[in-house]
C-alpha cells in the first residue's frame, strides 16, 4: 500500500497512454517528452512496485498481467479526475473536452461521420475521438465514453439511450425482379439467389412473419456469402439477388430506387429479439455534459422515426 501511495498522477497517465498507443516514442511525441524520460518513469514505477509492468521489444510495448491490472485502475483514476474537472467546468454553458466514441464501422461511416462537421460547428470546444470497429468493446476496459451498439441490449453494467429502432427489409434490385420475378412468399425464395451474411456464428437465418403469427426461420443459399454487409448490399444493387438488411444500411438505396422492398406484407428480421440502435455508457460513470451533448445531438439528427426509415411503408 505504501508503494501505491507514492505513485504520481503523471506516471499513471503515462502508463495509460502507453497501453493505448503501445509505444514509448509515440507517447513521448504526444506528451512533448523524450522517449528516455517516458521509459525512465515506467522503470521507476516498476522499481517502486517491485513488479514488471511492461514487456519491451523492438516492435511494440505490451503490458504484463500486473501492467494490465494497474492500467484498469489507472484509467478509472484518470476518468474520475476528468469527471471532477468537467463538474467544475459544467457551470459554463458550452460543453468542452474530449469525447471518445466507439461505433460499428459501416454505421459510423453512414450515420455518424456525415454529422461530425455540424457537431463541431455547433460545439467548437468538443474534441471528438471516433474509433470504428466491429469488435466487442468494453467501455470499462477500453477508455471509451460512448458506445454505439446495434442489437439486443442485455448488459446490466451499461446504461443506454435508444437512438432508433432497428428495422429490416428484404430487398432486391428492379433489374433482378424484372429478370426473375417477385416471390409470393418466403418459401419461394428457395428458388431465387439469396445473398447471405456470414459472421462468427455462421450464416444468418432470415425470419418472417405475418401479423401476430409466429416467426418462421429460413436458411437460404445463393451465389454470394460474406461477412461484409456493404459488399452484399452492393451485390444486391448490382442485381445478384435478394438481401435482408437493416434500413439504416439499405434505406438510401430504397429511397433512390436502386433497391425495392419485397414481401412488404411480412415482418422480416435476422433475429427473434427486438433490436435497437443505442448510445451506451457504463452504469458506474456519471453522464457528463459533453457526452450528454453528443447523445442529444444524435437523437435530434436521427429523428423519430429515424430519417432512414421516413417515407417507407
TrEMBL record:
Pfam families: HTH_1, LysR_substrate. GO terms for molecular function: DNA binding; DNA-binding transcription factor activity. It comes from the Bacteria. Gene3D superfamilies: 3.40.190.290, Winged helix-like DNA-binding domain superfamily/Winged helix DNA-binding domain. The keyword Transit peptide does not apply. The keyword Transcription regulation applies. InterPro entries: LysR-type_TF_proteobact-type, LysR_HTH_N, LysR_subst-bd, WH-like_DNA-bd_sf, WH_DNA-bd_sf. CDD domains: PBP2_CrgA_like (cd08422). Residues 7-64 form the HTH lysR-type domain. Keywords: DNA-binding, Transcription, Transcription regulation. Belongs to the LysR transcriptional regulatory family. This is LysR family transcriptional regulator. It comes from Rouxiella aceris.
Amino acid at each position: 500500500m505504501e508503494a501505491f501511495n507514492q505513485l504520481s498522477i503523471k506516471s499513471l497517465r503515462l502508463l495509460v497512454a502507453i497501453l493505448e498507443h503501445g509505444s514509448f516514442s509515440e507517447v513521448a511525441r504526444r506528451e512533448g517528452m523524450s522517449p528516455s524520460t517516458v521509459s525512465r518513469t515506467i522503470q521507476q514505477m516498476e522499481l517502486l512496485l517491485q513488479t514488471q509492468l511492461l514487456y519491451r521489444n523492438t516492435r511494440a510495448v505490451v503490458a504484463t498481467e500486473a501492467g494490465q491490472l494497474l492500467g484498469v485502475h489507472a484509467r478509472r483514476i484518470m476518468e474520475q479526475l476528468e469527471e471532477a474537472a468537467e463538474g467544475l467546468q459544467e457551470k459554463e454553458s458550452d460543453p468542452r473536452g474530449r469525447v471518445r466514441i466507439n461505433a460499428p464501422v459501416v454505421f459510423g461511416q453512414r450515420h455518424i461521420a456525415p454529422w461530425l462537421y455540424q457537431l463541431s460547428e455547433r460545439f467548437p470546444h468538443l474534441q471528438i475521438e471516433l474509433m470504428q470497429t466491429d469488435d466487442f468493446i468494453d467501455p470499462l476496459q477500453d477508455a471509451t465514453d460512448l458506445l454505439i451498439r446495434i442489437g439486443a441490449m442485455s448488459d446490466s453494467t451499461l446504461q443506454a439511450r435508444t437512438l432508433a429502432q432497428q428495422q429490416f427489409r428484404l430487398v432486391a434490385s428492379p433489374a433482378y425482379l424484372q429478370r426473375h420475378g417477385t416471390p409470393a412468399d418466403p418459401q419461394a425464395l428457395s428458388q431465387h439467389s439469396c445473398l447471405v451474411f456470414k459472421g462468427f456464428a455462421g450464416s444468418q437465418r432470415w425470419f418472417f412473419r405475418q401479423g401476430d403469427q409466429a416467426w418462421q426461420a429460413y436458411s437460404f443459399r445463393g451465389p454470394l456469402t460474406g461477412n461484409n454487409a456493404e459488399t452484399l448490399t452492393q451485390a444486391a444493387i448490382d442485381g445478384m439477388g435478394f438481401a435482408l438488411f437493416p434500413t439504416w444500411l439499405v434505406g438510401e438505396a430504397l429511397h433512390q430506387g436502386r433497391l425495392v422492398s419485397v414481401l412488404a406484407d411480412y415482418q422480416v428480421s435476422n433475429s427473434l429479439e427486438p433490436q435497437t440502435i443505442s448510445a451506451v455508457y457504463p452504469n458506474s460513470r456519471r453522464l457528463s455534459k459533453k457526452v450528454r451533448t453528443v447523445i442529444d445531438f444524435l437523437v435530434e439528427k436521427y429523428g423519430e422515426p429515424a430519417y432512414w426509415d421516413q417515407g417507407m411503408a
